[in-house]
Design goal:
The complex is a heterodimer. By secondary structure, chain A is mainly alpha-helical. Helix content of chain A is 78%, strand content 0%. The relative contact order of chain A is 0.15. In chain B, 17% of the residues lie in helices and 36% in strands. Chain B is built from 2 helices and 6 strands, in the order H-E-E-E-H-E-E-E. Chain B has one domain: OB fold (Dihydrolipoamide Acetyltransferase, E2P). The chains are: A mainly alpha, B alpha+beta.
Chain lengths: 161, 121
């Protein structure tokens, strides 16, 4: 873990973060919060819909609004998160929350992949879903919620270790 | 509703006397001084300014200061203290006595006191 973090710290992104003034980290941190809140705020609505809330709202319509917001939020979070990590990566050697956070993010992304190939999801715009299919989507929504909640919780806890 | 608001207010106020920032829970309430020679100079990057010093027994201390801008405003810049100089830091050390980490509120270098958190011990 130390070697990987040393390498991350030595990247040009790390240098840029360390050498561009005392406000850089604070601003990047602010953007990170905006990214994470956009991601979680939007995905929360979709996950709750998959879990059975607001069934009067058509899934396809909701998804078409929520997905781009979530994807943009995720992109911002990844970019700013990498920059913050690179600033002093070696400071996180042995931080257990880091080791929970990143697998949680990876699992969240795998879950997105699973959702995308699920026949029920693909059929969301074209037909009514069966009970069984709705249950499938509910499981995926639940996993999603658990992943992002874990990632956010552990992300915040990194600073308190 | 009023009760909830009161409860929230009490919670928020109970957090106020603590330090302005997070992460002091793992550190002692009492204050310590550590004198050592600087091995890694002041860095104003990241959430907090940092440096490393080596004490008389040879332990390398991770010194965590205030957020970068605040540290700089207090006069502690990256160029101020050359590696190898002697400094004394004043603050709260890690509760784990085997962890040589101290979160400092004041720093003395070259006979001058740098008060990073004015009004705070």
């Amino acid at each position: 873990m130390r070697e990987i973090l040393q390498w991350i710290e030595a990247t040009s992104l790390g240098h840029l973060m360390r050498e561009s003034g005392p406000w850089t980290y604070a601003l990047v941190n602010t953007a990170h919060i905006l990214g994470v809140s956009s991601l979680f705020g939007s995905i929360l609505v979709l996950d709750l819909r998959l879990l059975g809330c607001w069934t009067r709202v058509r899934l396809a319509d909701l998804a078409s609004a929520v997905t781009p917001v979530a994807a943009t939020g995720f992109a911002i979070a990844i970019a700013t998160g990498s920059a913050m990590l690179a600033t002093k990566a070696t400071a996180y050697v042995g931080n257990p929350f880091l080791l929970i956070k990143f697998p949680a993010i990876a699992l969240g992304l795998i879950n997105v992949g699973v959702l995308k190939v699920t026949p029920a999801w693909k059929a969301r715009a074209t037909r009514e879903l069966s009970r069984g299919e709705q249950r499938q989507l509910a499981v995926i929504g639940g996993i999603s919620l658990a992943c992002w909640l874990t990632a956010i919780t552990c992300g915040r806890m990194i600073a308190f270790w | 509703m009023k009760k909830v608001a009161t409860l929230v207010a009490v919670f928020m106020m109970s957090a106020l006397p603590a330090f302005a920032h997070h992460g002091w829970g793992g550190n002692e309430d009492k204050l310590s001084n550590v004198t050592g020679t600087v091995t890694t100079g002041v860095s104003l990057a990241g959430p907090h300014a940092t440096m490393k010093i080596k004490d008389a027994e040879g332990h390398i201390w991770d010194v965590t200061m205030a957020p970068p801008n605040r540290t700089q405003e207090a006069g502690v810049t990256e160029k101020l203290i050359p590696v190898g100089s002697t400094v004394m830091v004043h603050g709260h050390r890690n509760k784990n006595q085997k962890t040589y980490e101290i979160k400092v509120t004041k720093l003395t270098y070259n006979g001058k006191l740098y008060d990073v958190y004015p009004g705070m011990d």
